[in-house]
Amino acid sequence: MRVSYLYLKEIEVRILFVSILVLINYSLASSQCFNNNFAFQEGEIIRYQAYYNWGFIWLNAGFVEFKVKPATYLDKQVYHFDSYGASHKSYDWIFKVRDRYQAFLDKETLRPLWFHRENYEGGFEVNNEYFFDYKKNLVYSSTENSDRPFARDTIQIQPCTFDVLSFVYRCRNLDFTKLQIGDTIPATSLLDNEIFTLYIRYLGKENIKTREGIPYRCIKFSALLIEGTIFKGGEDMIVWITDDDNRIPVLVEAKILIGSVKAYLESVEGLKNPLTSRIE
Questions:
Q1: CA 24, CA 219: separation in Å to the nearest integer?
Q2: DSSP state, 30?
Q3: How far is CA 173 from CA 196, 247, 277, in A?
Q4: 75-106 pLDDT per residue, tens
Q5: Label partner for 125 (CA 20 to 30 A): which of 60, 201, 206, 217?
Q6: How confident is the model at residue 259, as a pLDDT?
Q7: Whether the model pTM is above 0.70
Q8: Backbone phi, psi, residue 169, to 5°
Q9: CA dist 72 to 82, 114, 279, Å?
Q10: For 185-225, what is each residue's pLDDT tens digit?
Q11: Backbone phi, psi, residue 238, to 5°
């Protein structure tokens, strides 16, 4: 069973903070990189439970929580996205995960302004901080982890590049109605000081149920994944988001090198719009 627990760190946060975000994250055109917000508001809280499958065994490995809060940054009122993921305490003695991601976004344009990542995963620690300068298309980063000492860097970015957390909120405000089944859409994301260019494929609409059996009308996508230590590469991840003005991820599932993972929507509160996609 040791092998399965070695993948908990990817279940808790990478599945939600990388996989979901890469999955939903895309740029239709430069004119649509930044847009006004209709999908969320301050006070919104969304919670997920993460499950890992190895053979016939499903483990409820951990949870993730996304919060939208008010904040002031450089004397300006901004959105503060505060997301936290952890392994359940009953698993901590095997593989302890405590991951926190934060971001500030401009309220008018949804441009990312600042991003902070603090991770503790089985004794491995990461501390990354990004400051965005869209006038120069640069990101000023401060990074360190258990293997690398503290370092500063300047990263050249494209106009439509987002950190993984701010991208999911920006994408919740895009128009999905013009997509045809099979359309592929490019995606640009900044993670660990690297720029990744991927794509997602629109798969239409489908009803999907949560772990508790609550049905939702959803928009469905697959995503091209990067081959590496956890993923095989290829379009091995699928996400379902609510087909209403909230655009909340309901379910994410993916194949990994050993087994598969799923992240289920558990609860929501403080939504800006009625949850009309829920089937009563």
A1: 10
A2: G
A3: 22, 8, 16
A4: 999 999 999 988 888 878 877 888 899 999 98
A5: 60
A6: 64
A7: yes
A8: -75, -40
A9: 14, 12, 38
A10: 776 778 778 887 767 788 999 999 999 999 999 999 877 65
A11: -130, 140
